[in-house]
Amino acid sequence: MSATFKPHGIQGPITGDYMARIHADPVTTALMHPTRRALYEVLLDTDEYTTVQLQKLVKVDRYNLYHHLHKLESLNLVMNHRDEGRTRWWCVMDRVPLPNDGRTISENSIGQIDLSNPKVQAAVRTMLREIEEMTGQNLNLDAATLESLQINGRRNS
Fold it and tell me: Which residue would you say has higher pLDDT here, 133 or 18?
């Protein structure tokens, strides 16, 4: 009886090799969700809002509103800083840069990756070295400073 090795990750579309998954920063991942991003952006623009005000501004039902507020609260981005009777008041605890949500990239861009995290930079350098080997093209990665990566191509209609 022989054991079969099944690597973790996703299978690459071109070579069929398995690629490691890249795990994003939890704050970035949370703020990429449209409802959480909208809540955070609304709260950034003011000192505080009540739950009812946020519900009207973001146009989401109460259950989903609390779900997303609690996720932001668990990451110390927002907090329920005071209660008056049944009214809860929310404010921003930590101001962080908003991740690129794809609204500012060109029509032909498939996506953009923020490379401020050193672990993400290392993973991208590894991926680019593999592309160098496949294409025979020298990208001179040692001299380059990786700040962002934009991937252009054709979108599938």
Answer: 133
